[in-house]
Write a structure and sequence with these properties.
It contains 8 helices and 11 strands. It has 278 residues and is α+β, with helices and mostly antiparallel strands. Bound molecules: manganese (II) ion.
């Protein structure tokens, strides 16, 4: 049997007053709520399937004047709601149904982007409300990630820590074209400019999709740029290695971002998957 230990932590940082980062952890369960029955009481527990899908997400509001706090909150709230209505409940997932699931995830991302656009349409100061959003759906042992923006998903397979999403910043685009070197990206002003977000003025949305087959002992980290802009990958890896409990790891990660200057809200969501005897 696989057990999941997970937690999340977010800090405002030392410079910002507003909460532009949000996170969400959710268990999707197959359930029938028993309204009334002549059956014995125990039936209630049998109406819940144990097979669960788990949902993890981070969102980060983008843009100075355009209510980034509201954009982030609306995105983090809307996306699980869309999934609730889209994604089939059964904990089991046949291989041939994976593409349908990915289509549902992409559709939920698009609907969330449209929701942000609808919320901001014609409202002065809100026009172009946008958010970075990274979502992981766990159907053990598979992890499906959908992503737009500059938050990140990492796979921690000790001792390695691997970024599994790309940053949708102009600086990364320039790096991909060979204009910038890796070491020129960090700290580059173009690394704060996003070419792809949920909502925003561009109608085209690119939903980056990743699938990972997890192993027992793996961990998955979702985090915002307030963490990765301040704390290098090596340090993140060290913290994950030193702190087995997700609550400790998340706390240490956001503390490290604060200690490094805390220029932005920093958020970490971490899940670790362990094999236990049933
Ligand atoms: Mn940020």
């Amino acid at each position: 049997m696989i057990t999941v230990a997970w937690d999340a932590m977010s800090t405002l940082g030392r410079k910002r007053k507003d909460r532009e980062d949000h996170y969400f952890l959710g268990d999707m369960k197959n359930a029938i709520l028993v309204e009334k029955t002549s059956l014995p009481r125990e039936v209630e527990s049998r109406m819940f399937s144990k097979a669960a899908r788990r949902l993890l997400l981070v969102s980060d509001g983008v843009g100075g004047q355009k209510e980034p706090d509201l954009a982030s909150l609306s995105a983090a709230e809307a996306l699980p709601r869309y999934l609730l209505n889209l994604v089939p409940w059964s904990g089991l997932l046949r291989e041939e149904d994976e593409d349908d699931l990915l289509d549902d995830l992409k559709l939920a991302m698009r609907s969330t982007g449209e929701r942000l656009r609808a919320l901001s349409e014609g409202v002065p100061g809100k026009d172009g409300m946008a958010a970075s959003l990274t979502l992981a759906l766990l159907v053990w042992p598979r992890l499906f990630v959908v992503h737009a923006g500059h938050s990140r998903a990492y796979l921690h397979r000790p001792p390695a820590l691997t970024q599994i999403t790309t940053d949708h910043t102009v600086a990364r685009q320039l790096q991909a074209r060979g204009v910038l070197e890796e070491e020129e990206v960090r700290g580059n002003p173009w690394n704060k400019v996003l070419w792809n977000t949920l909502g925003g003025e561009e109608e085209d949305l690119f939903v980056e999709v990743r699938k990972v087959v997890l192993h027992p002992g793996d961990g998955v980290l979702l985090c915002t740029d307030g963490l990765t802009g301040q704390v290098p990958d090596d340090r993140i890896r060290g913290i994950l290695e030193d702190h087995a409990a997700p609550e400790d790891a998340c706390l240490r990660l956001v503390e490290a971002a604060d200690e490094a200057g805390g220029k932005d809200n920093a958020t970490a969501v971490f899940a670790r998957f362990e094999r236990t005897s049933a």
